[in-house]
């Protein structure tokens, strides 16, 4: 009975309202960072009760992780992409975010990456709601490529595909002091990711 009541309470927030809350959370993150973000601030910004926020999400870490997941136009929708080739799938994934969105996401993720190292709850929430689901999505995309004969199943680079994709996105700012862009990521995929997997780029 308790579980039924809890589920009913959580279901009161409509998808539209949930999306508004997530956008507000990300706006606050960009303004103050994770450590300074409070549930009181989220409640005030979204005109919600703090009790509702805790009942729906349990705490700040899960709320932030789910907000990032909900508004992430890339990996979380990867299962919906099936162009018939790995190159086509990765290009379609890249085109889901324009250059402005990529710059905003890059800045947000840099700040959260620092917070993850000092917040075990945030790390656990990110693993549960972002890292593990995205890794599973990438594994399914790669398996389709293996089934099509594009990639050898024993290619050791398969295990590092997620590392390669995230590495290119993150390193663009660190090394070149420039935000990631569609053009850069397309070139990176053709020059690094596909050759490592043994996939022709022509």
Poorly predicted parts: 1-10
Mean pLDDT across every amino acid position? 86
Total helical segments: 10
Structural shape: elongated
Distance from first to last alpha carbon: 59 Å
Q: Describe the biggest sheet?
A: none
H-E order:
HHHHHHHHHH
The helical percent reads over 70%
Strand content: under 5%
Integer-rounded radius of gyration: 19 Å
Number of strands: 0
Secondary-structure content class: mainly alpha
Explain the overall architecture.
The chain has 202 residues and is mainly alpha-helical. It is built from ten helices and no strands. The chain has helices spanning 2-10, 15-32, 39-46, 50-57, 60-71, 86-94, 99-118, 120-148, 161-176, 182-197. It is elongated.
Features:
mainly alpha, 202 residues, 10 helices, elongated
Provide a concise account of the structure shown.
The chain is mainly α. It contains 10 helices and no strands.
